Structure formats: C-alpha cells, structure tokens
Amino acid sequence: MTEKILITGAAGYLGSILVPELLKNGYQVTAVDTFARNDTALAAVCDNKNFQPVKGDARDEALMKQLLRDADIIIPLAALVGAPLCKADPINAKTTNFGAVDLLASNLSSDQRIIYPTTNSGYGIGEQGKFCTEETPLNPISLYGVTKCDAEKAVLEKCGGVTLRLATVFGMAPRMRVDLLVNDFTYRAVTDRTVVIFEGHFKRNYIHVRDVTKAFMHSIANYDRMRNNAYNVGLSDANLSKIELCEQIKQVIPDFIYLVAEIGEDPDKRDYIVSNDKIEATGWSPDHSIDDGIRELVRGYQMIRNVKFSNV
C-alpha cells in the first residue's frame, strides 16, 4: 500500500528538493503551500499522479484537520525562516512557526508519524570549545529560535515524533535561498568578489540541502527506532567560523577578498559548534561537503542575478 505524506510549506527551499525525492520513491504527496511567490518550484513534478498540490495556509485549522485524516506521515516545513524575517513579522512568525506545528501535533492519531525540521540555532551561544549535543540545554536568542524550539517541544511531548535540528543549510534548489550564509557569501564572491565580515570568529555548523532530504528519508525508514528524539543534522567536519568559511570560498574563487570589520556587530549572535554523532550512529551520513556546495553554487550563480531568491 502506498504511504501518504502531508507536507506543509512544500514549495519552499527544502520542499523543492524533498518533494521530488519522495515522489521518486513511490510516496503519495499532498503539498500544502500558499504559493504566494507564484513561482514554479514544483512544476517538474506536476506530471506525477501521486502529487497533489493544495493552495492553502498551514494555520487553517479546518483545512489541516481535513488533510490529516488521510496522512500516514506529516512533515511540517511551513515557517518564517531566519532571525531577520521573524523579527520583521513577529505575529506571523509565532502563528506559523509554532502555532501551525502545534495544531498538527495536537491532532495526530497514535499511528501517524511526524518528522519536524527545527534548527540548531536553538543552542544560541555555546560554551567555547564545547560541542553542543542533543542533551545541551536550548538557549535560543532570537524569536526564530524560540518559536522553533517551542514547536519541537510540542512535537516531542504531544506525539513522540522525530525532530531534526538542522545546521545552516546551503546549496542550490529550485526555490533558491541566496540569504543563507554559505549561499550569501558565495554569491558575493561570484558577483562582487568581496564581502565585509562582522564578528568573523562566530562559528556555526552547516549542511547541504540535499543531505537534509537524505535525513528525512532516513528518518522515515528508521522511524520506530528514532522516534521520541531530537537529532542534530550537520557536517561534522564543518563547524566553521565566518573567516574559515571565507577561506574555503577563496580556495575556489582565488580573487575573492574578505575584510573583517574592526567595529560593528552582527545582529545574529549565534556562536556554537555542534556534534552530529547521534544521527550518524543511526546510519545516516552526508554526501556533500562544504567544498562541493561552494562549487555547485558557483555554477548556479551563473544563472542567478536576482535578490528575489532570499527571504528578506
């Protein structure tokens, strides 16, 4: 029997890679999105009879309760992603990032499965030289982090799901995000050949968008032994400072110049290193390195010269 997957925010950055992979593996996919951008991120899968797009809002209680009836697996991707966007629109951030997920978690039956992507930005500011594990207390320092952590708590406590604490995502996708850090710095290297860095010693972890899809597929296949748990999902060899990231970009684009500002602050104060040992112990491993992603982005940016591909 073909399993049915309900995805909210399906036409976004993650969904534009995940939905085609699910369909390729034989799942029926109901893809909820506002489709507000009027783009064609999922146009290539419209010929698949197992694909059903639904134009709607993940906060619509009547709609979501109706769609939940037929779903075996739920993947809530709908969110306002990133600290700047959430700060600019706090009401929508709270109602979408937390409220819409809490709605799903509160209405799931015991035989339905939910896999929720949260963010490792919930760690906030880590201890110097100490890896953040899933046991590390969460300390979000932005509204984005707070709403995602609250939603993760709802998923774990109300329905014992699987939550994936994603590192900063990078890589090309049909619905592109240029504002994410690796994508942004590489875009500036390709177009401007320079970038000014504030607080360049701040570290974070990274993960390729296709490896995020691999983590979802892995979680579906191993749900019973992974459930009731959170998992960090990132590259274990990519706990990099902004300066170290720029050095890697410079290896690919030698005439790229980065300048470290002696004054000024980064409004995003996240600074931590992350251990991904827990999910790796279940058999998952990433396929794409930071270098792979930078080279992919360089190729992709030969086609993109438009800031519409960001969230802010």
Automatic annotation (TrEMBL):
<dbReference type="Pfam" id="PF01370">
    <property type="entry name" value="Epimerase"/>
</dbReference>
<dbReference type="InterPro" id="IPR036291">
    <property type="entry name" value="NAD(P)-bd_dom_sf"/>
</dbReference>
<dbReference type="InterPro" id="IPR050177">
    <property type="entry name" value="Lipid_A_modif_metabolic_enz"/>
</dbReference>
<feature type="domain" description="NAD-dependent epimerase/dehydratase">
    <location>
        <begin position="5"/>
        <end position="234"/>
    </location>
</feature>
<dbReference type="InterPro" id="IPR001509">
    <property type="entry name" value="Epimerase_deHydtase"/>
</dbReference>
<protein>
    <submittedName>
        <fullName>Membrane protein</fullName>
    </submittedName>
</protein>
